[in-house]
Amino acid sequence: MEKDNIAVGLDIGTTKIVAMIGKKNEYGKLEILGIGKSKSLGVARGVVNNITQTIQSIQQAILEAENNSGYKIKDVVVGIAGQHIRSIQHTDYISRNNPEEVIGEKDIQLLIDQVNKLAMLPGEEIIHVLPQEFKIDGQSEIKEPIGMYGGRLESSFHVVVGQASSIRNVGRCIQSSGIELSGLTLEPLASADAVLSQEEKEAGVALIDIGGGTTDLAIFKDGIIRHTAVIPFGGNVITDDIKEGCSIIEKQAELLKIKFGSAWPGENKDNEIVSIPGLRGREPKEISLKNLSKIIHARVVEIVEQVFAEIKAYGHEDPRKKLIAGIVLTGGGAQLKHIKQLVEYITGMDTRIGYPNEHLAGNSSEEISSPLFATAVGLVMNSIENSTQSAIRMEVVNEQPKVVYRNVPPPVQRYEVEENYVEQVETFEEPREVKTTKVAAESTETKIRRSFFDRYVDKIKDFLDNAE
Q: Which residue spans adopt a coiled-coil conformation according to this UniProt entry (predicted)?
C-alpha cells in the first residue's frame, strides 16, 4: 500500500491523551483510521508534572490507536499548550542593501531570525513567530511581500513564548514512549484549523477551546492570527467546585456535570433532584439540580469573563478590529448545556459550538465529530500538511521545471501493509524530469511556520540526545 499521506496527531491534555491516525481521502476530506484514548495522569493545566505517568498514558493511547487502525505509529505531531504559554506583539524591520533587487524568502527569513533573537525572561523561549502584515518603504497592509521591490522591509509579528523546560519535558515523554517527534503545533492553532472556516478567519472570530486544565483563546482577523492566550482554568475546576459544594467524590462530580449540569440556573426547577449513591453502605445523597447549576454557573462566568478580558485587550471594540463572526466554542467544556447562551449573554457576541466535522469524511463516527476531539483532528490535519511537503520540491527556472533536492535526508517514507500492521520502508528515488509546469505556491506564513517549527523540533531532539 502506498503512503496515502497517513499522519498521526497526539493531543496531550490535562484530562485525556488522544492519539489519532488519519489520511486524506480522494475528496480531500480527513478519514480517521484509528483513535486511542487514555486518562492523562501526569499532566496538570497542560504542563507535564510526572514524566513516568505521562509516558504510560501516551503508550496506552498509542497502543489503542494502533490496534484500532492496524497501523504501526512511528512519529507524531504534538500539540503545545499549558499555562506557561503567552504571546506578545512585536514590530521589527531590516534594511536591504540593494532596493532594486526583488524581495525573496531569504529576506523574510532574515527578519524572522532577527525577531528570534529577542531577549526573553529567564527560562523562556520563543516557540512561534507569526508575521502579520508587512510594510515596504512606508507602504503598509502588504500580506505577500515576495516579488516586490524596496529598501526597508518591516513587519508586525505575533510572537508566542513558552517555558523551554515544559516543552522539553513533552519531547522527553514522546522519545521515551518509543516514537519520534515530527512536529510541534500550538493547540489553539490546531483547534482553529479543525473548526473554523476561512470566511470566519477573514471576518474576525475568537476561538475559545475549553479543555480540562486550561482554556485556550485564538483570535483571527483578515485571515491572520492576531492574539493568543491561555487561561489556567478549565472543566476540572468546575468538577472540583461540584465536589466541594455537594460533598461528593470526584468521579460522581464529573458524571453529575456531564449528565445533569447546566450553565444556566434558571433552566432547572426547585423540585428537580438527583440521588447519588452513598459510600460504603451510607445513605444516598440527594442533590438539587438548581443548586448544581448555580455552582457550575458561578465558575463558568469566571472563566468566560477572563477570556472576554483577553478579547477586550485585543481591542475588539475598535471598528477595524471588530470580530464579525463572533465566538466559536470548542473543546470538552463546550458540551456543557446552555454554555452557548451564557457566553452570548456575557459578551454580547454571536456564538456557535465548533465541531470538526467540516473537514471529516462523511462516514466518520459521531464521537470523532465531537468538540472534544477538535484539537486532535487539527493536529492530524497539520501532520498531513507537513508530510505532503516531501524532500522533492519543484522550482520553475527559465520556464523549465527543475527538480531541486532540499534536505535530502530524511528520505521519503512509504507504508506497506503486512497482515494487520504497517511497516515504514525507507526509499529514495533518483532525480527525474517532471513534466508539469504548475507549481503550487505556499503562502509566506505557511512556509515560515513550517521552517521555524522544523528547526525548533531539531533543537529539542539535539537537547534530548545530549541529555542521554
A: none
Beta bridge partners of 403: 394
| pLDDT tens-digit readout, 134-168 | 999 989 889 899 999 999 999 999 998 988 899 89
Residue corresponding to grid cell 471594540:
317
- The conformation of residue 359, written as its DSSP 8-state character, comes to G
Nearest of 215, 305, 292, 216 to residue 258 by alpha carbon: 292
Nearest to 132 by CA among 225, 197, 199, 198: 225
Task: Give Cα 449 distance to the centre of its chain.
Answer: 13
**pTM for the full model?**
0.79
- Whether the CB-CB separation of 178 and 72 falls below 8 Å is answered with no
- Tell me the percentage of the chain whose pLDDT exceeds 90: 52
Note whether 395 and 402 are within 8 A (CB): yes
What residues of the chain score a pLDDT lower than 70?
Answer: 1-5, 388-468
CA-only gyration radius of the chain, Å: 24
Question: What gap in Å lies between CA 31 and CA 20, rounded to an integer?
Answer: 10
Cβ atoms of 16 and 40 closer than 8 Å:
yes
Q: Return d(Cα 148, Cα 139) in angstroms, integer.
A: 11
* Pairing between β-strand 16-24 and β-strand 30-39 as defined by DSSP bridges: antiparallel
- Using CA atoms, how far apart are residues 312 and 310, in angstroms rounded to an integer? 5
